[in-house]
Amino acid sequence: MSLGLTSLIPRRGPTRGDARAKARDDFFLRAFESGALPRMITDADGRAVHANRAFHERFDCTAGDPYEAMVAALAAGEGGRETMDRLRAAAAAGSSAHGDFPVLDGAGRRAWYAVQAHPLEASPSQDDSGFILWRIEEITARREMEQIIRDEQRKLFDFFENAPIGFYSLDGEGRFLFVNNTFAEWLGHRVEEIVGTGLRLHDLIGDELPPGTSAHVPFSDPGGVERGEAVFVARDGRRFLADITQSVVEGEDGIWTRTVVRDLSRERAMEEALERSRQRFRRIFEDAPVGIALLDQAGTLRESNGSFRAIVGRRLLDGLPLTDLVAAEDKADAQALLAAVAEGRDCAQPLEARLAGSGDRVLALYANQVGDGEGAGVAGGMVVHALDTTEQKALEVQFAQSQKMQAVGQLAGGIAHDFNNLLTAMIGFCDLLLLRFRPGEQSFADVMQIKQNANRAANLVRQLLAFSRQQTLQPKILNLTDVLAELSHLLRRLIGGNIVLDMVHGRDLGEVRGDQGQFEQVAINLAVNARDAMPEGGTLTIRTSNVARDEAERHGHELLPAGDYVLIEVVDSGVGIAKENIGRVFEPFFTTKEVGSGTGLGLATVYGIVKQTGGYIFLDSAPGAGARFSIYLPRHLATETEARADRGGGGDLRQDLSGAGTVLLVEDEDPVRMFGARALRNKGYKVLEAKSGEEALEIFSTSDEPIDLLITDVVMPRMDGPSLIMRVREQAPETRIICISGYAEEAFRKRLDSSADIHFLPKPFSLNQLAGKVKEVMRGRA
Question: How far is it, in rounded angstroms, from Cα 620 to Cα 629?
Answer without folding.
Answer: 7
